[in-house]
Amino acid sequence: MGSLTVSGMAEATGRARHRGRRRLVRRAGGWTAVLVLAVGVAGGGVAAHRAGLDLGDVVGDVRRAPGAGAPPAAAAAPALATPPPAVAPAGPAPRILRYPEQGTGTFRTATATGRVAGRGGELMRYRVAVERGIDEVDVERFGREVAVVLADPKGWTADGRWRLQRVGPDTPADFTVLLTTPVTRGELCGDPADRYTSCRNGDRVVINVARWARGVPGFGGDLATYRAYVLNHEVGHRLGRGHELCPGQGELAPVMQQQTLGLHGCTPNAWPQVGGELYTGPPGEYDDPIPAED
């Protein structure tokens, strides 16, 4: 897969685009931006300021945020006739994943090749890559997380139509899962105004790090479920699936519903298979507005 630029990828024509949005855009007032580490440079196309995109160039060490230190020791309490009940010490606060609004436009590629998931159907190979600038995400760990979701027995390989295998940078692949900054997401999805959602554009499954870090309000803070949903949704587009609607009030949302933008009476669901069968809703999509920012 030769050396490419973000602009070259973004300018590809005749390729289908799928994303969790339609045409309306609104501001989501009052949302905090505490996870953003740096704000991207305003003005101008991303491609005009970036080095070539080389999905075969792997960087080894990735910087991580320093771990939270141990809490200070509490002052000794005065002696009591009856000791109070024991209270477990509070653990360190969860580490917040920080990321820049705009990365470098070049990518680190996970190196491992995994087993084939699924027992029948067409084999689809995929790579996994993380944009440089998202320094708190280890590309190898992200690759493992993607592979676990895509190999899950509730996933796309369950019904014998598809087999999926993760490959490294030197093996031909049918698509690439890219974790990108919000600005680069807009470029690769062909929709610079949308820095909120993820998308599938041709052979690129573009996962917006803002959603990977924060999820969406409808999932009630269940980040693991949201991450599985967004991967299965966008990979589902690569496998030829279109958008679907909520089948009924209180029902599970089909994985191909645009759950990032709204549930429309359904409850969150991350998986194509429910109860051992492919779970679908009526074809179609809602004209939901997109938050302009987090």
Automatic annotation (TrEMBL):
Q: Which residues cross the membrane?
A: 28-48
Query: Which keywords appear in this protein's UniProt record, sorted alphabetically?
Result: Membrane, Transmembrane, Transmembrane helix
Q: Superkingdom of the source?
A: Bacteria
> What InterPro entries does its record include?
DUF3152
- Acidic residues bias locations: 285-294
* Residue ranges annotated for the DUF3152 domain, each copy included: 98-264
Asked if Transmembrane helix is a keyword of the record, the answer is yes
Q: Where is this region: Disordered?
A: 1-21, 275-294
Q: Does the keyword DNA repair apply?
A: no
Protein name as it appears in the record: DUF3152 domain-containing protein
